[in-house]
Amino acid sequence: MKSLHEKLAAVQGRLKAPKNQRNNFGKYNYRSCEDILEAVKPLLNEYGLVLTLTDKVHSLFESAYVEATSTITDGKDQIQVSAQAGINPDKKGMDIAQSFGSSSSYARKYSLNGLFLIDDTKDADATNTHGKTSTSNKKELLTPKHPKFENVKSYILGGGNIKQVEDKYTISDAAKIQLVNS
Questions:
Q1: Are the CB atoms for 144 and 178 separated by under 8 Å?
Q2: For the purposes of burial, counting CB atoms within 10 Å of the CB of 8, is it exposed (0-12), middle (13-18) or buried (19 or more)?
Q3: b/e map of 70-90 (b: 16 or more CB within 10 Å)?
Q4: Torsion-angle region of residue 180: left (phi > 0), alpha (psi -120 to 50) or beta?
Q5: Nearest alpha carbon to residue 54 among 114, 11, 112
Q6: Element (H or E) spanning 3, and its range?
Q7: Which residues face 54 on adjacent strands?
Q8: Which of 43, 70, 118, 122 sees the fewest Cβ atoms within 10 Å?
Q9: Which residues 6+ apart lie within 8 Å of 124 measured at CB?
Q10: Per-residue pLDDT tens digits for 43-80
Q11: pLDDT tens digits along 111-136
Q12: Burial of 132 (0-12, 13-18, 19+ CB in 10 A)
């Protein structure tokens, strides 16, 4: 009988979670939490595994964030991976429930990415320059008042990688706190 680790490794090796969603503004495709779940369910069934997702809300520096945990079990052993996402209760166009739900989906997606070894660092959304090319190797300082701060914040909320932002900008402490908690 295979161990949980062997079964999980088999699922990780076979899982194909295509990017079925489209961001027309940024002109890139991406995968959602739901896309990952749809792709993994048949493999879980095949290997006799159960996946559960749970959320817990925390606060840090007077800001709220959600921590999502993906737990996979074979009924005997279990493996867990967690990820966090900031909650912005004042997000334009969203009520408080939508803001929490958006952060939950984001955190769940990244906990699933960690559990199933889905690498988003080479995604178009992580490296997207929106058609602009850099003419200098010097990094701009990104602050909350920077004209592109809201674009960067939207990128992070949409599943973007903070490390990609750090490759392009020097980020002030105030900006980093807002980005991590957005």
A1: yes
A2: buried
A3: bbbebeeeeeebbbbbbbbee
A4: alpha
A5: 112
A6: none
A7: 69
A8: 122
A9: 28, 29, 30
A10: 999 999 999 999 999 888 878 889 999 999 999 999 99
A11: 999 999 987 654 444 444 544 444 44
A12: exposed
Q: Do residues 63 and 181 lie in contact, with contact meaning Cβ atoms separated by under 8 Å?
A: yes
| Residue 29 dihedral angles phi and psi, to the nearest 5° | -100, 155
- Structure token pair of residue 75: 């009924």
The model scores a pTM over 0.90: no
For residue 125, give every residue at least 6 positions away whose Cβ sits within 8 Å of its Cβ, in sequence order, or none.
23, 26, 28, 29, 30, 155, 158, 159, 160
HEC string of 90-153 equals CCCCCCHHHHHHHHHHHHHHHHHHHHHCCCCCCCHHHHCCCCCCCCCCCCEEECCCCCCHHHHH
Task: Count CA atoms closer than 13 A to 150's CA, side-chain side.
Answer: 4
The strand pair at 28-30 and 50-60 is best described as: unpaired
Going from N- to C-terminal start, the domains of the chain cover: 4-180
